[in-house]
Amino acid sequence: MIQKSEKDTVAKKSKVGGYMLQQWMERMATWFRMFYKHIVLLLVAHLLLFTIIGMITTSKPSPRLASSIFSSWTSNFDQSIFLTLLRFESRSFDAITTSDEERTSLPTIAFEVITSIRLDDLKSLLGYEIPGFSTYEHKVIIAGEGMDDMNLLSHESGPPLEDILQDRKAVDDEQEEAPVKQEKSTDEPVVFLYNSHSRESFLPHLPEETDENNAHHEEVNITRVSDRIAQSLEANGISTLVDDTDIMNILHEKGWGYHQSYEAARPVVEEAIANNGNLQYAFDIHRDSLPREKTVADINGQEHATVLFVIGAENKQYEKNLDLATEIHYKLEDAYPGLSKGIITKEGANSNGVYNQDLLENSVLIEIGGHENTLDEMYLTADIIAEIFSELYFEAEKASN
After folding, report:
1. Residues 366, 195 contacting (CB under 8 angstroms)
2. What is the pLDDT, as a whole number, of residue 63?
3. CB 374 within 8 A of CB 202
């Protein structure tokens, strides 16, 4: 009897346990039916979030979508906004603020964050309202004597290629004599000069042209300035390699646009580096497209073409390239005040951002003069650039030895 009673008790407990389990499962099923859509959405949201994070953190730095979006968005913010936001997190940042003027109100922060328009900068509004204005993306690193907003309107798109390739009458009447060569101190070339915009010319040498967009010529062009720099460097004892490739012809053969000039020039630079193991410096020589008053400096009573250094901020050699440009700029500023307008960097979706400066750690794009300068003015500056660079080069050689 006792055994039977115990069996009945166990059976009852099993029944109760089974019933409770069934009830719990039914409740879970009911709960799942009520909330399964929310659960699925939550899982999908988590999966999407991790996918986006993976794309952002593993994609290459140059074409990265998130980088260009967030960079262009936050680049419009005034630094006072960041200080204000940091002040919300830590009161110690109050010590940074020296006056009430540095504080930014919350409505101003909200307006600038939402619209990317800075109330104290009209250009931030014009960049959205005027077609093409936003393509002038730059950052001033060092502002020289002649630097202003106008000096920064250097456009990379250029005129149609068919206009550049047109035959034009040119007058070659430069008067400046080339420097006399001396015995080279370097047997192999250590400097490489080339021109990504190889047909950039000068209106004073194109008597039938008045439009800056037509300031292009097959022979009388910026390559003459590269030749002059090379002659001056050779005269100072530095062996120099000059490339005479017509990049515009390459664009024409490939069916590319003017904005692809740097891409077309890249194999030229790669080949020069591969075939000349001693190359240490590469300079891409250009002329600007600004009016004459912005590209002329009076040096000792003579008009010289001004200089602007451009560094691509999206390449692995960025810091070393910037260091070289900085050294040259300050030496120019000391010896010939007003000749160098300074250094700018370019990056972003509407700019090349590299300029082939990733191929060699001492690479700089140099804008000399503009379309309204004469070759004589360009040559005067070319000789000075060679003089200043030669000083830097031999100082570095002396230090390394």
Report:
1. no
2. 43
3. yes
